[in-house]
Amino acid sequence: MVEMGLLTQLLSCTDEAAWRDTLFTLARRQGFDQVVYGVVGSRQDKLESAFLQSNYSSSWRDRYDADRLHYVDPTVSHCLASSLPIVWEPETFNGARQRAFYEEACGHGIRSGITFPIHGPNGEFGVVSFASDALPDPREATQAIASLALIRDYAFESSLRFVRPQQQQDKPRLTRRELEVLKWVMVGKSSWEISKITNCSEATVNFHIGNVRQKFGVSTRQQALVKAIGMGILIPEDHHR
Which residues cross the membrane (predicted)? Predict the structure, then answer.
């Protein structure tokens, strides 16, 4: 499980160092001691211009950046074309150049991991990798995906202040019913459960959730929830009862 306190701490960080340390702590709690997080404001931006945070070894980062290995890295090419995470396995690195890339990474303690694509609602693109020096165990990696995906969502939303600090996001205006439904989403209730609590149909609940997603410019209720917390519209400790 992911600690909600650390997730909301990501949203409240006002400087990059505190944000980076919180992300690394979240990753360690999930069994991954190495992280690289990079986001550009647009898919048209050069990857070299990304907002980048990493605790990979400095020698590997220098080598990776100097030789622009992100254009060789199969996890990056995967993320450009897909919204699904990729679990590192030997088959992931299937060309001679990619295999050499992987063997060199192993020498720097980056042997196994999971990489998640980041596709923002305003054209942002990025990658976050959670890595370890342990031998790959696809079963354990699969079990960690849900928690790591949640960390990815919070990391992306909270990193926007550093990716595009000049832009201020306006808070969407939610109706009383939309806010009520979103509060119940925050405490983990399903649409069916919310319909019973609020004495309306499940279709009506989903209609309100759809409106909320549209107002926040996101595709899932979880992403809308992250944005609402980040903007101070909802406070996780203030559970709706």
Answer: none
